[in-house]
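Figure 3 (text version): structure tokens given as input.
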């Protein structure tokens, strides 16, 4: 059989035999690529891409840590600034006494007679506790207006008038009823 195959090849043109051998070698190389080399080469490329991504993220990690520390220090400064702006004492009794004293001094400055101050409901608003009080006072219309304009100076930036009602009284006297809300930060765990 080998002899017959050798005789058949000898009768063929040398270019056809060389072309067939090149074609057969090409098929073997193609099959070798598809079955043996393609998967490891793809895996190697993925490993290289992952390596470059991870090295870039590791280089950014110190910058992110510095940014987090910067944001944390800014948050502490803002908390300190907010606590300084809010003139609300920590305990409830101190807060009520402080509010009464501030309102009384402010009312006396404008000639207003405070008639009552009653605590209202408490509620949580975002990261603050809202404490409301209903205040009633009597005086002339212009004195009451000036007194209300002075609230931020008297009570600080944490006080807000949520609603008010003005009624005419005896002679030139006007009765004012309003709700004032004080905001103090909730005690957050650090």
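Below: residues designed for each position.
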């Amino acid at each position: 059989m080998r002899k017959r195959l050798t005789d058949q090849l000898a009768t063929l043109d040398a270019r056809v035999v060389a072309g067939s051998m090149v074609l057969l070698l090409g098929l073997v190389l193609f099959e070798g690529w598809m079955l043996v080399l393609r998967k490891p080469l793809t895996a190697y490329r993925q490993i290289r891409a992952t390596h470059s991504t991870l090295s870039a993220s590791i280089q950014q990690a110190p910058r992110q840590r510095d940014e987090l520390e910067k944001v944390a220090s800014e948050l502490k400064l803002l908390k300190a600034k907010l606590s300084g702006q809010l003139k609300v004492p920590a305990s409830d009794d101190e807060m009520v006494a402080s509010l009464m004293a501030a309102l009384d001094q402010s009312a006396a400055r404008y000639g207003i007679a405070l008639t009552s101050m009653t605590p209202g409901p408490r509620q949580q608003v975002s990261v603050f506790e809202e404490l409301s009080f209903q205040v009633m006072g009597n005086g002339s219309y212009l004195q009451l207006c000036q007194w209300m304009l002075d609230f931020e100076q008297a009570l600080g930036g944490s006080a807000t008038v949520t609603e008010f009602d003005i009624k005419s009284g005896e002679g030139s006297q006007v009765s004012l009823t309003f709700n004032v809300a004080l905001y103090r930060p909730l005690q957050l765990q650090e």
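Residues 14-85 form the longest helix (72 residues).
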